[in-house]
């Protein structure tokens, strides 16, 4: 017989009693403490140390044990402590100042408001994931962290942004290791009531949206709002009683499920996201967006929904609605390889966008054409989300200069008449939100400005800090990181089945006086987690060097379906488990924001060795640099763009060698050599290594301003948002501009086959072309049914290679000189022979309209059918060239 009172949560037969529903109960704060609720409900506390200090003062021990989660803190703090604080005048004054500071932050004019004539009323920013804080686990890696930093920087700058995403009830996944070092996934339930978010309500009624599915089913979603400073983040949640069980599972987890499941998530994000924005603006009075920005192709269906709106509400035809939607849309691609793009079976798109499901205002054949791989080598059986994103956006960009080059090459098939350099995809290099990622101790030493919204001169405080103070601060941060790592490693080993009696060695892993290197990121094959293991004996020698040892902390998750990535992790874990080196190299599971924040300031060197050019940008090295770490990296992504030998070291790339094993061997040994001969000697050069500190200072002061998220968001505003808003206003005002543009494009496409460049000639070239000579160029062009106002005639000239391809061409628009019968015209201009060596030129005709964002927008170009001069002239060398 079981003793009375010992049942607990176990049933009579030992079966756990499980709740049929789970929810969190929030405390009722005493009236004097209601300001705490105000602070909790605005996520500015994530990057505002003074607000974090207020929470810590509530209960320091509880603040630490909850991992810095203010919702949990207020839910667990004893009522007696709240009553005590309600009568603590010093605390109440501190709380009052914090609330007043937040109020000023969200209402005062900032950079955007100071920009005279900024035309953007609002921007809707869509992303499948947002990494704001570990307390809100709605991210998997770099894409989400970038999106979170974009929102925070927009808030700091006062940019009127609305974030749009999904609320996943199980987030991404938590990672642990089994005894053999194999990655294990867990999916803890995310309870919205326990998060710093709130339901959007229309009066007392929760606001929501729905999307019609095949067979008359409805996919309903409620809208949760996370207030990120000045920026609202709308997150759609399908786990509600209005849905059938299958539909409730649509927002179950990030990047999980079948192909159809993934498509439904993207349908909800794109189509449902636009409807959620409309509902939010209706309920709150927020300005309706003029610009829609899709962060990767996952949200690309937003463009189809906007076309449907215009067709249904404004009775616009498809072509006119397409131009209206395109004009105000920005598409950012983060993918350096076609395999990283979402592609769905055409049949699946047909089912979900049929007239029965989506309405009859948008013809299904036009929808399918938007995502069709109708280019050489494309698959006619799939619908490509990135291609749809490019076709639905008038402006597109990659996320670093090198990635822009890669993207123009990867998507060149959409513009077959143009060289990759002419493909209309620009680049804006990513940045990181310094207040989120820079340790307070580093910030106190280096920042002259307290707010990243005021970045001019923000690092001047570094000049007042001595080398010794910088060095001691880095050592202290190294020790803090080591303490955190030891706790995580101990917990990991216990989870792997070790007993406490086996783990005495954990207390001595890592050393605060040893050169510490960090490597943390997702684990796809191209990031080459195990490159450092190519020569295990050489790596061991570096780790155990008698006078210049190194230590490495590694973290990263493989996608649950990526068996290859999991094998890489296991290989690394098995090496790190070796008792000979386990005090010098560790793998820490469950990489997330909470792990990353002490890691960046605790490292001296940030290691990155991707397979160039597959790193679109990468931002972890930026965060490390702002915390006084030097980069040791392959020149890929942002590091290719901003590398300076005072910021760290470039690992030589063996790009071009097709034998992957040989390439890995060459690059691994180059890595070992750099560590052994340059990195470690410089770190250990004296008690306070002056040359190392000099590089650290240079990195923070010179590289720091470049890698800021505020720089990135300013670039988006000035280069993409403002032009998109101009286009949106012109096309939306009466829709006549859109109708005219759509009709003009239709007319130009129909007439383009008649366009010919009949003859091209140079004047004044001479027998021996001389450097600096200016020559005349004339082109005779037949325009068929088009007019001179419809086109631009452009001469392109410059050095040519052995294939007669013009490298880095100079472009000159030619002027209309004379018109002849048969709609034939002569265009003239001048070319300056400004470089020596093989020189070539050509002429092409391009469509021209003041509403085009790029001459390549229509993908049409016409050139000479036969070169006028097959021989390219050789220019004599000049002394200054």
Automatic annotation (TrEMBL):
Protein name (database record): glycogen phosphorylase
Family: Belongs to the glycogen phosphorylase family.
Domain spans labelled DUF3417: 29-136
A Pfam family matched in the record: DUF3417
Species assigned in the record: Kribbella orskensis
Classification lineage: Bacteria, Bacillati, Actinomycetota, Actinomycetes, Propionibacteriales
Record's keyword annotation contains Isomerase: no
Reaction catalysis annotation: [(1->4)-alpha-D-glucosyl](n) + phosphate = [(1->4)-alpha-D-glucosyl](n-1) + alpha-D-glucose 1-phosphate
Cofactor: pyridoxal 5'-phosphate
Function: Phosphorylase is an important allosteric enzyme in carbohydrate metabolism. Enzymes from different sources differ in their regulatory mechanisms and in their natural substrates. However, all known phosphorylases share catalytic and structural properties.
């Amino acid at each position: 017989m079981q003793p009375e009172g010992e049942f607990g949560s176990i049933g009579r037969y030992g079966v756990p009693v499980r709740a049929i529903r789970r929810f969190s109960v929030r405390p009722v704060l005493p009236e004097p403490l209601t300001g705490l609720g105000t602070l909790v409900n605005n996520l500015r506390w994530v990057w505002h140390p003074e607000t974090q200090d207020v929470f810590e003062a509530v209960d320091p021990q509880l603040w630490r044990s909850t991992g810095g989660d203010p919702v949990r803190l207020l839910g667990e703090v004893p009522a007696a402590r709240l009553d005590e604080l309600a009568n603590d005048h010093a605390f109440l004054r501190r709380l009052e100042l914090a609330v007043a500071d937040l109020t000023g932050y969200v209402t005062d004019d900032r950079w955007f408001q100071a920009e005279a004539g900024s035309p953007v009323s609002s921007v809707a920013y869509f992303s499948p994931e947002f990494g704001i804080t570990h307390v809100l686990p709605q991210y998997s890696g770099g894409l989400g962290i970038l999106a979170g930093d974009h929102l925070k920087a927009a808030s700091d700058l006062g940019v009127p942004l609305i974030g749009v995403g999904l609320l996943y009830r199980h987030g991404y996944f938590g990672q642990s290791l089994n005894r053999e070092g194999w990655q294990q996934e867990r999916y803890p339930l995310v309870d919205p009531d326990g998060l710093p978010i709130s339901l959007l309500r229309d009066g007392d009624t929760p606001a929501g949206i729905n999307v019609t599915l095949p067979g008359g089913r409805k996919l309903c979603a409620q809208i949760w709002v996370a207030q990120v400073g000045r920026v609202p983040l709308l997150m759609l949640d399908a786990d509600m009683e209005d849905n059938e069980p299958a539909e409730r599972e649509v927002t179950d987890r990030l990047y999980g499920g079948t192909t159809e499941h993934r498509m439904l998530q993207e349908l909800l994000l794109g189509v449902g996201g636009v409807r959620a924005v409309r509902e939010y603006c209706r309920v709150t009075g927020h300005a309706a967006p003029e610009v829609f920005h899709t962060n990767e192709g996952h949200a690309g269906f937003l463009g189809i929904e906007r076309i449907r709106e215009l067709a249904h509400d404004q009775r616009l035809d498809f072509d006119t609605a397409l131009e209206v939607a395109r004009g105000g849309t920005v598409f950012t691609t983060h993918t350096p390889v076609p395999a990283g793009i979402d592609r769905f079976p055409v049949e699946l798109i047909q089912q979900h966008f049929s007239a029965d499901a989506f309405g009859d205002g948008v013809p299904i054949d036009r929808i399918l054409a938007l995502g069709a791989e109708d280019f050489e080598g494309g698959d006619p059986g799939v619908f490509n989300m990135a291609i749809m994103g490019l076709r639905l956006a008038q402006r597109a960009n990659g996320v670093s200069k090198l990635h822009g080059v890669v993207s123009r090459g990867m998507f060149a098939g959409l513009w077959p008449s143009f060289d990759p350099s002419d493909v209309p995809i620009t680049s804006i290099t990513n940045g990181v939100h310094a207040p989120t990622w820079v340790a307070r101790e580093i910030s106190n030493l280096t920042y002259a400005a307290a707010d990243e919204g005021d970045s001019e001169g923000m690092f001047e405080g570094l000049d007042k800090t001595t080398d010794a103070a910088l060095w001691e601060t880095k050592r202290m941060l190294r020790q803090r990181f080591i303490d955190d790592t030891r706790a995580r490693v101990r917990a990991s080993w216990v989870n792997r089945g070790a007993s406490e009696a086996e783990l005495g060695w954990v207390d001595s892993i890592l050393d605060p006086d040893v050169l510490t290197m960090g490597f943390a990121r997702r684990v796809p094959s191209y990031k080459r987690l195990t490159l450092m293991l190519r020569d295990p004996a050489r790596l061991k020698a570096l780790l155990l060097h008698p006078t210049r040892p190194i230590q490495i902390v590694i973290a990263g998750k493989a996608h649950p379906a990526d068996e290859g990535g999991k094998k890489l992790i296991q290989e690394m874990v098995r090496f790190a488990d070796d008792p000979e080196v386990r005090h010098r190299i560790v793998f820490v599971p469950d990489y997330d924001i909470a792990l990353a924040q002490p890691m960046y300031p605790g490292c001296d060197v940030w290691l990155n060795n991707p397979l160039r050019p597959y790193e679109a940008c990468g931002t972890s090295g930026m965060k490390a640099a702002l915390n006084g770490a030097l980069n040791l990296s392959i020149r890929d992504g942002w590091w290719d763009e901003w590398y300076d030998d005072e910021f760290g070291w470039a690992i030589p790339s063996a790009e071009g060698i097709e034998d992957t094993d040989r390439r890995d061997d060459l690059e691994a040994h180059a890595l070992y050599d750099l560590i052994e001969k340059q990195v470690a000697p410089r770190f250990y050069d004296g008690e306070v290594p002056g040359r190392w500190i000099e590089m650290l200072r240079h990195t923070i002061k010179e590289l720091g301003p470049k890698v800021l998220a505020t720089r990135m968001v300013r670039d988006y505003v000035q280069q993409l948002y403002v032009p998109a808003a101009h286009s949106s206003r012109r096309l939306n005002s009466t829709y006549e501009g859109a109708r005219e543009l759509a009709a003009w494009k239709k007319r130009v496409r129909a007439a383009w086959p008649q366009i010919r460049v009949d003859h091209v000639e140079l004047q004044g070239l001479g027998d021996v072309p001389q450097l600096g000579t200016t020559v005349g160029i004339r082109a005779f062009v037949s325009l068929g049914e088009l007019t001179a106002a419809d086109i631009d005639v452009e001469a392109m000239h410059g050095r040519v290679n052995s294939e007669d391809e013009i490298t880095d061409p100079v472009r000159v628009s030619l002027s209309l000189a004379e018109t002849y019968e048969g709609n034939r015209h002569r265009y003239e201009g001048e070319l300056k022979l400004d470089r020596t060596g093989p020189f070539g030129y050509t002429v092409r005709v391009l469509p021209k309209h003041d509403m085009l964002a790029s001459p390549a927008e229509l993908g049409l170009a016409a050139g000479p059918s036969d070169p006028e001069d097959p021989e390219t002239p050789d220019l004599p060398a000049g002394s200054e060239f």
